[in-house]
Amino acid sequence: MSYVLVAHGTRKRRGVSLIGDLASRVAATLDRPVHVAFVDVLGPTPAEVLGARTGEPAVLVPAFLARGYHVGSDIPAHVRDSGHDDVTVTPALGPDPQLVRVLVDRLVETGLRPDDSVILAAAGTSDPAALRDLHTTAAWLSATLGARVELAFAATGEPRVADAVATVRAPGRRVVVASYLLSEGLFQDRLRASGADLVTDPLGTHPGVTRLVVSRFRRARALSGVRGR
């Protein structure tokens, strides 16, 4: 069985390396190779990776933190174009309680204080289902922190992160942006330029993300075995 991790893609070398590192950590846990593909900016594409492995079943995990165009349209199109007839595509990584725990860890390691105002910053989307996913994550993070967390966007959607920072800023209170991005890139740069007092690192290779990706592969493999009986 082939394992394929599909990410968005970025021109930032650090962002590409981060996805490669995540795949390596997942592969080490699964004790088998994990191939990386990208739906935008650079290759190889999912169609190319799958097309080279048509002789065995494949599991594809979308490394996206919510549903959206890439998960709902791009990836299925790549699967069709690949000519591979035995591909299991798992749900996107988010929303998931595991990601909320990763967000909290990132906030704590960045120096979060109880009186800080927190903004959850996502890339953004015009897809209603993806937007619901993001609001779900913001609500879960609010419940975990015991304080309201505002949702803002680095690209598509309102409010933009810089505007949200300006709106919630109050005398004597810091504004902390919790990055809801998987890797470094243009959007993470925008978060750091938003005017917030603190910005967390992307979720990246946090052990919790590795565990979540591993669980997606294992569950899909198990379900594939049940269907094949």
UniProtKB/TrEMBL annotation:
<dbReference type="Pfam" id="PF01903">
    <property type="entry name" value="CbiX"/>
</dbReference>
<keyword id="KW-0479">Metal-binding</keyword>
<dbReference type="InterPro" id="IPR002762">
    <property type="entry name" value="CbiX-like"/>
</dbReference>
<keyword id="KW-0456">Lyase</keyword>
<dbReference type="InterPro" id="IPR050963">
    <property type="entry name" value="Sirohydro_Cobaltochel/CbiX"/>
</dbReference>
<protein>
    <submittedName>
        <fullName>Sirohydrochlorin chelatase</fullName>
    </submittedName>
</protein>
